């Protein structure tokens, strides 16, 4: 396993994180949770044996069961690992059972602690934006949890770059515990965060945790055959949840990318398209850890091998070029920003 520090903290985190969105049994929010407690125990043990020390979950995964399963699976090993959970999404029928109000943030964190069977959360992340609650109120709630010792670090997920920047500025203004990481969707088929989010993260020194690195399983190649003829998915995320629409995946582009992943995988002994897609992400300096989830231990083992796969510069460039996002204003002016005379003078110094 490879390790790095998360953002500007000294928190050492594995480059791969086990995601628990599949934990919990049953269906919630239109998503199937096929991993029961026994299988969760096996996968958590498998992750720890492989050197993974970070586990990501959320208070609404499986209606809270994912946190319960993770807490039981960790058992006495809890002190050796990092638990990252999220809050803010709807968890009940009451009007107050969602959002980032002081009331809901504190109550959600306390409930997560009970489900996880622990007395502290290593990384508490805002799951979704809340346009109704002022940043000051949410930031105060997070700082309150940190001051009580219930939370070690705070981060965010799925916020726009301007929202995260404003939130962080609010925390600095009041001397609150600051954001140290972002959890965002990033894959070969979803590079939108390269416009605003990744420059913001680099500027502020925040870490990046990547969710859905295989675009809902599409980049594993199991939904297209060698003739690029689409197969109807019968299991996995694409079967139970419309990830293609949610993640705005272009079918034709996706098939071309999968074909290239297969070609690159063929050049590496026993490699798979999924491993190549994960290795591409791990080669990005801005990425701290890639969250990998699975329905079965065998699938999880395949993804784990990505940490040992090193792509050549030519292979990385080929994937970058094939999936390069279309330039948008004003981001397309970024490369030509500043004065050309000054740039040449500095380069020739």
TrEMBL record:
An example of a Gene Ontology cellular component annotation for this protein is: cytosol
Q: Which parts of the sequence belong to the NADP-dependent oxidoreductase domain?
A: 15-322
Show the GO MF annotations. oxidoreductase activity
**Pfam families of this UniProt entry?**
Aldo_ket_red
Q: Where are the membrane-spanning stretches?
A: none
Q: Which UniProt keywords apply?
A: Oxidoreductase
- Superkingdom in the source lineage: Bacteria
Q: Which PANTHER family match?
A: NADH-SPECIFIC METHYLGLYOXAL REDUCTASE-RELATED, OXIDOREDUCTASE
Name the chain's protein.
Answer: Oxidoreductase
Organism this protein belongs to: Reticulibacter mediterranei
Q: What is the lineage of its organism?
A: Bacteria, Bacillati, Chloroflexota, Ktedonobacteria, Ktedonobacterales
């Amino acid at each position: 396993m490879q390790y790095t520090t998360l953002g500007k903290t000294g928190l050492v985190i594995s480059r791969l994180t086990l995601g628990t969105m599949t934990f919990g049994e049953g269906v919630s929010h239109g998503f199937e949770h096929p991993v029961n407690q026994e299988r969760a125990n096996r996968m958590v043990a498998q992750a720890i044996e492989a050197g993974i020390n970070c586990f990501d979950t959320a208070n609404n995964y499986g209606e809270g069961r994912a946190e319960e399963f993770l807490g039981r699976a960790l058992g006495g090993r809890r002190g050796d690992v990092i638990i990252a959970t999220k809050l803010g999404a709807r968890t009940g029928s009451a009007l107050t059972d969602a959002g980032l109000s002081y009331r809901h943030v504190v109550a959600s964190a306390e409930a997560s602690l009970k489900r996880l069977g622990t007395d502290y959360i290593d990384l508490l992340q805002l799951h979704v934006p809340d346009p109704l609650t002022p940043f000051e109120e949410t930031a105060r709630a997070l700082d309150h949890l940190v001051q009580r010792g219930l939370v070690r670090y705070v981060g965010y997920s799925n916020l726009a770059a301007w929202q995260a920047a404003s939130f962080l500025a609010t925390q600095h203004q009041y001397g609150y515990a600051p954001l140290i990481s972002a959890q965002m969707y990033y894959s070969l088929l979803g590079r939108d965060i390269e416009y605003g989010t990744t420059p913001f993260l680099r500027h502020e020194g925040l870490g990046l945790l990547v969710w859905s690195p295989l675009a809902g399983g599409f980049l594993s190649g199991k939904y297209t055959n060698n003739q690029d003829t689409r197969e109807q998915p019968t299991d996995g995320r694409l079967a139970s949840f419309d990830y293609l629409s949610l993640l705005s995946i272009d079918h034709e582009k996706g098939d071309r990318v999968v074909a290239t992943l297969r070609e690159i995988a063929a050049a590496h002994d026993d490699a798979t398209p999924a491993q190549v897609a994960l290795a591409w992400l791990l080669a990005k300096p801005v990425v701290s850890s890639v969250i990998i989830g699975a329905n079965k231990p065998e699938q999880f083992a395949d993804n784990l091998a990505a940490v040992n796969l090193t792509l050549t510069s030519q292979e990385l460039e080929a994937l970058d070029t094939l999936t390069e996002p279309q330039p948008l204003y004003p981001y397309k002016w970024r490369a030509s920003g500043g004065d050309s005379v000054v740039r040449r003078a500095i380069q020739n110094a």
